[in-house]
């Protein structure tokens, strides 16, 4: 994507929008199954600290999800690369994967 990421494209197309790139590494299949609990880390990329904090609060209310500040919006492209990797792994191993970063145990997990 020429803009670098989907979030960066939204920010370009909607000037003044408070854009937070999130939920990129959670399976769309899992997001559609409302009765099934989600789990994993949710990477948040944004140039708007207040918007990022707001989304982090929402994510932290979801059981087994942990919001992680992954930096500015431009790093959303890196997270989207991880998404492509997960899609490939899901296809190859007929699985539904998510990401959990080890070594950040001090970062509060959601309820």
Please summarize what this structure is.
This protein is an alpha+beta fold and 111 residues long.
Walkthrough of the structure:
This protein has helices at 6-13, 28-32, 49-60, 76-93; strands at residues 40-45, 65-71. It is of the alpha+beta class. The radius of gyration is 14 Å and the shape is globular. The termini are far apart. 23% of the residues are buried.
| Mass-distribution shape | globular
Taken in chain order, the helices and strands follow as HHEHEH
User: What structural class should be given to the helix and strand makeup?
Assistant: alpha+beta
Distance separating the two termini: 36 Å
Report the portion of residues in β strands. Answer: 5-15%
Uncertain regions spanning at least 5 consecutive residues: none
State the helical fraction.
Answer: 25-40%
User: Helical element count?
Assistant: 4
Task: Return Rg in Å.
Answer: 14 Å
Largest sheet: 2 strands, parallel
> Total number of β-strand segments?
2
Mean pLDDT across the residues is 91
Strand order of the largest sheet: 1-2
